[in-house]
Write a structure and sequence with these properties.
This protein is 51% helix and 10% strand. By secondary structure, it is α/β, with parallel strands linked by helices. It folds into four domains: 30 residues, no CATH class; 163 residues, Substrate Binding Domain Of Dnak, Chain:A, Domain 2 (Up-down Bundle); 151 residues, Rossmann fold; 209 residues, Rossmann fold, CATH 3.40.50. Bound molecules: iron/sulfur cluster (SF4) and Broken Fe4S4 cluster.
Amino acid sequence: MTASVEKEKPGSERVYERLMRAARREFYESVSIDPTVPQLLEKAEMDGAETAWHRYLAQQPQCGFGLLGVCCRNCNMGPCRIDPFGYGPQKGVCGATADTIVARNLMRMLAAGAAAHSDHARDIVEVFKGIPEGWAKDYGIKDPDKLRGVAQALGLEVEGRELNDIAKEVAEVMEWEFGKPGEEPLKLVEAYAPKKRKDIWRKVGIMPRAIDREVTEIMHRTHMGVDADPLTLIAQGLRCALADGWSGSMMATLLSDVMFGTPKPIRSVANLGVLREDAVNILVHGHNPVLSMKIAEVAGDPELVQMARELGAEGGINVVGMCCTGNEILVRLGVPVAGNLLQQELAIATGALEAVIVDYQCIMPAIVDVASCYHTKVITTEPKAHIPGAIHVEFDKANATETAKKIVRIAVENFKNRNPERVLIPKEKSELVAGFSVEAILEALGGSLEPLADALKAGKIKGIVGIVGCVNPKVKHDHSHVTLTKELIKRDVLIVGTGCWGIAMGKHGLLLPEAADLAGPGLREICKALGIPPALHMGSCVDCSRMLIALAALADHLGVDISDLPAAGSAPEWMSEKAVSIGSYFVASGLLVHLGTVPPVLGSKKVVEILTDKAEDLVGGKFFVEPDPAKAAEVIMAHIAEKRRALGWPE
Ligand code: SF4
Ligand code: MSK
C-alpha cells in the first residue's frame, strides 16, 4: 500500500474532498454534451462564479403550482392557486378555474414572446425608415432586389422608382402593421400567407389585424373578469402568434436582409474555442443586427486595431457572437459564434473576454455577477434593456459607426486588465456552413422548387422538419437538439432551423456538407449532389419566418395546404416566451409541433386537450410534448408517413 492511500482513512477530510471532486465532475459532465461546458463550469466554480446550472439546482424543487400553470396573480384579490389533487381550492377568489388560469397564463407568455419579436421588428423598421429620411446615415440598402421583391409582394409600384422612394413606402406599410385600426388583415399576412391558410384563419376568426392590437387584446382578455373560456383565449393566442410570425418576425427578417444582405451559404466556426489569447475578445449578444453588424464592422477599423496592438493584443480585435445576434452576423458575415444561451456565462469564465456587448432578449442579468469575477465589462446599449452593474452606452442609431467605435474602444482599453493566469480558452471549435435563406436554398436547387418537390414525391426526402429554439438547464444542454436532428436525418428528413439550435448544430459538426454521411440514402444523395448539409441553418429566432415562406412556397408549388405537407416543427430544448409564440404560429399555420420541455399547462386537462388535439380540427396543426428526442423522432416520422399516405406518395 502506498503512503498516500494509507492517509485516506474512511471519513477523513481527504476522502471527503476526493469524493466531492468526483461528484462535482460527474455533475459538470451530466449537464451538457458540449465538452467546453465541464471545463468551464469547473473553472467558474474555482473562480467563485455561479452559472445558470448552479442557480437551477438551487431552485429545486421548483414550485409545483408554477410548473402546472395553476397559480394566478392577475389581481390583488389573489394570488390564488388551484390544488391539482382536488383536496384544496378548485377556484380562485374570483371563481377562475384551473382551465381559465392555465390558459390565461400561457397566453400571457405567448403575448410577451410575440411582443419581443415584434418590438425588435419595430426597431428595425425605425432604422430602415431612417435611410430614406437621411438620419440613419451609417446604414444602407445592401440588397435592392430584396427591397423591390418585398415592395412588389405588398402591391407597391417599383418600376422606374428610386430605391429610397420604394424604401420610404415599404417602411410606411410596415409601421402601419403595428397599430392600424380596423378589421382589415395585416398587409404582410395578405402578401405572404397562402390563400388556403388565410381562408382557414378567416373561417376560425383568427385573422390577425394589427400586431400591437393582438398583443394588447391578450392582456385585456386575461385581465381579471374578462375571458374565462380556455378555447377563446387560445384562439386569440393563435391570432397573436400569427401576427408575430407572418408580420412582426417576418418584417424583421425581410428588412434585415434588405439592409444587411440576404444570407448565402458561408463558412465559419462555432464554440468557445473561437476566443483568442492574442486578441481583444468582444462578445456581441442579444438579437438585433442593427448593433452587432456595426460592432463587427468597426472591429476592423485600422485605428482601433492599432490601439489593440499597442496594448499587447497582437491579433487585433476578435468579435464573436452569441445567441441570435450571433446568428445574424454569422449568416451574413461569417463571424464566428461562441455558443448558445447557456454558454454566455461560460464565455466570461474563460477570463479572456474584454467586453460583452448586448442589446436585448436572452441576456441573463447574472452575466454582470460573473463578469465581476474577471476583468470583463458588460455594456448594455438599448434604452429598454438596462442591467444593474453594467456600463450603459446608449446605441445612437443616427451616429451608429461613432457609437460602435466608442463601445469597441472600451473593450480595447480593457485588454490591459486581462490576467493571463486566469485565462482558459477551450480548444473546441467546429467548422460549419450557415446562411440558408430561402433564396439561398432556391439557388442551391437551381432556381426552382421542382427538384425538392420531386425528391419529396419520390421519397428520397421523406419530409421537412423545422427545429427551433433555445437551450434549457432542465435538459442536457444540446443533447435533444443533436439527437433529434440525427434521428431525423438518418430517416431522410431534411432539417431547417434557427436560433440556439443552429449554434448547437454548428458546434457538433452537423452544419457541414460532410454531415450528409449521417443521413439516410435518399437525403444523402440529394445533399451530396447539391453540396449542402442535411441540416440547414437559416438564422436567428425571427428568421423562423423564413420557414413559413419556404413552406408556403412549397405548398403552393404542390397545390396543397401547408397542413398537407409531410412537415413538422420542433422546439426540443425551448425556454423562451418567444418559443411559445413561434410554436403557436407553426401550429396555426398547420404544422404538428413537438415540444421537448413541458410547458406549464398540465394543471388543465381542457387546455392540454385543446393544444394537443382540438387545435388540429380548427387549424390543421397541434402540439405534442415528448422530452425524449428519440421517441419524438418516432412520433414525427409517424406524422410524416401519414401525410405522405394522404398525398399518395410512397412511404
Ligand atoms: Fe385570484 Fe381571480 Fe385575481 Fe387570479 S384574477 S388572482 S384567480 S381573484
Ligand atoms: S437566442 S430565444 S435562447 S433560440 Fe434567440 Fe436562443 Fe431561444 Fe434566445
